Amino acid sequence: MTTVARESRETKVRITLTAGTGAAQVATTEPFLDHMLVALARYAGVDLVCEATGDLPHHLIEDVAITLGHAVAAFLPAGCARYGERTVPMDDALVQVVVDLGGRPYYRGPLPAPLYDHFFRSFADHARATVHVRVLRGTDRHHVVEAAFKALGLALREAFVETGAVFSTKGAVRLDVTP
Known about the structure:
alpha/beta, Ribosomal Protein S5, domain 2, four-stranded mixed β-sheet, 8 strands, 37% helix, 31% strand
């Protein structure tokens, strides 16, 4: 289990991730964000508890992504498969997401909804993950964004698998920070 809390003058966010079945309890005051986080947890196969409040939708969505990214980085098993890829169709939308949880933050999109494109970028930066999102088809922004969250969840599910080996020619990387 991993819990990360983030608080500023603009937002208050608390996220808990647990290995599980994809159950989610989400309350962010933004119904669409709630819906996307529930879908992400379900498809990633992790249990998620998220409580968040904020002054503006932009601040709330960004800070939830930052907090979720930190939680995912802390949640990773040392010998995880690291890589995952999924393409998800949803009505008119077809979206591919590819992830590498190897500690190098990079995001390439875009999604056609600026707030959720920013969510994916903030998530990638703070999860220290490479995340590529390709919108192959789609005109309904709701469907495109939802397909992207589901594809991210399925790609994370693949990447989270404990393999017992470190998938890097460098071996395990250790970083010690002393204040």
